[in-house]
Amino acid sequence: xxxxxxxxxxxxxxxxxxxxxxxxxxxxxxxxxxxxxxxxxxxxxxxxxxxxxxxxxxxxxxxxxxxxxxxxxxxxxxxxxxxxxxxxxxxxxxxxxxxxxxxxxxxxxxxxxxxxxxxxxxxxx
Length: 125
Fold this sequence. Notes:
The chain is built from one helix and nine strands, in the order E-H-E-E-E-E-E-E-E-E. The protein has one helix spanning 5-16, and strands at residues 2-3, 30-35, 54-56, 65-67, 73-74, 81-89, 97-109, 115-116, 121-123.
């Protein structure tokens, strides 16, 4: 996963111990958004036609890795396209992007299809 500008600044401020973001607060929930390519530093590039964000849940970290503990699904997809990335947000409709990552393999979907992600890990290095 690539960290977003928001996440980089929040963590950097926490490390320096001062200023805005000196205490990084965990979001109440995390949401994933679909992309047809890398989402970019702010999570706004290559957005899929279906813009709904779906809640994602992760288990406890181990060795800098967290793994998906639910199976988020997007139903009734709006367009035929190839989904290759997701971005992670702290709000279902607004909020801050925390980063993006590539799926293990891209998936081509059609209008009205359902896409479910059954496994996804975030690695901090």
